[in-house]
Amino acid sequence: MRTRNMTRYPNSNKWAGTSVSLGKHPSQILERKLSAASNHGFDGVKLVHSDFLSHAKPNNFTPIQSGQKVQSVFKELSIEMLGLDPLKNFEGNISIPLSKRLDTAKEWIELAMAAGTTVIQMPSLFLPLSTRGYRIIIPELQELTDLAEES
């Protein structure tokens, strides 16, 4: 049973955090982080991609199997998976072909779906080998949204 150690007010915001903020030490396995979040009154957690990989490796899971297991842990703890974070260096990245970036995005979409979320956070690109040109960025983002819609 979850305990609430925070005062809650009517119509107040829900409490949430990011998995990476719950610890980076190898002993802090993902299930332990999620359990701690649940026990301390968090309503949801946004998962960082590296936590899926850290969860998959010792359990001999594929990332998709890890996502499915993580989804069941969220359900058991009655907390919400808020999204997957961060699909970075996507739009306007002239150092990696768009086809390769779309392949990576497809893997992320599959992982997000296996984990039970429809949200993938994508921060703005700030690499030196990038463009700010809207004639490149907008079509790339349109292809990304088309890929997500097809999934």
From TrEMBL:
It comes from the Eukaryota. InterPro entries: IolE/XylAMocC-like (IPR050312), Xyl_isomerase-like_sf (IPR036237). Residues 1-20 are annotated as: Disordered. This is Xylose isomerase-like TIM barrel domain-containing protein. It comes from Fusarium oxysporum f. sp. pisi HDV247. The lineage of its organism: Eukaryota, Fungi, Dikarya, Ascomycota, Pezizomycotina.
